[in-house]
Design goal:
By secondary structure, this protein is α/β, with parallel strands linked by helices. The chain folds into 2 domains: 132 residues, Flavodoxin domain (Rossmann fold); 34 residues, no CATH class. Helix content is 43%, strand content 22%. It contains 6 helices and 5 strands, in the order E-H-E-E-H-E-H-E-H-H-H. Strands 2-1-3-4-5 form a 5-stranded parallel sheet, with helices on both faces.
Length: 168
């Protein structure tokens, strides 16, 4: 099977997931691997991944997805605030919304990804100005929980997602 793995990764989290997907596709023909734009004309399956930018995939990934037609697509992503499957499901719906009609989304996978220290620093500065802000406290907690992700379990789940997507 001819496979394309196209991803937008700002901090390296999504690239880690893409490498786990690539490893799971051993024995298949990987015709492209890297950031958009990529030529995926010959791909039978396109894995398209992005970090979460304002609740959806990045503009570069949106632009790439909008070029697809007649493709089987498996979407994946990372999110700094991914602390619930409900949130991941909402991201999957938003990412799917960027895939034009005429394509088939065969599967989705999302996991938590660590965020840069500057994010925590910004939250701490805001909390100093408003020490009782429960939302900011929750955001710092989510930041701390994400520090170890994507972890080995996340990467194993990404590999399982890839193997399953190839079977659909």
């Amino acid at each position: 099977m001819k496979i394309a793995i196209v991803f937008d990764s700002q901090t390296g989290n999504t690239a880690q997931v893409a490498r786990a997907i690539q490893a799971a596709c051993e024995g298949q023909e990987i015709i492209s691997f890297g950031p958009p734009p990529q030529n995926v004309d010959q791909a039978e399956l396109v894995f398209a991944g992005s970090w979460t930018d304002k609740g959806s995939c990045t503009p570069a990934m949106q632009e790439f997805l909008h070029t697809l037609y007649g493709k089987r697509v498996a979407l994946f992503g990372t999110a700094g605030f991914g602390i619930s499957q409900l949130y991941f499901a909402s991201l999957a719906d938003r990412f799917k919304g960027e895939v034009p009609k005429g394509n088939q989304v065969v599967s989705t996978f999302f996991c938590t990804g660590k965020m840069p220290q500057a994010v925590r620093d910004r939250y701490e500065a805001q909390l100093k100005a408003d020490p009782e802000n429960a939302k900011l406290k929750s955001m710092i907690q989510a930041y701390d929980l994400a520090l170890t992700h994507p972890d080995q379990s996340d990467l194993e789940q990404a590999a399982d997602f890839a193997r399953e997507a190839m079977q659909v």
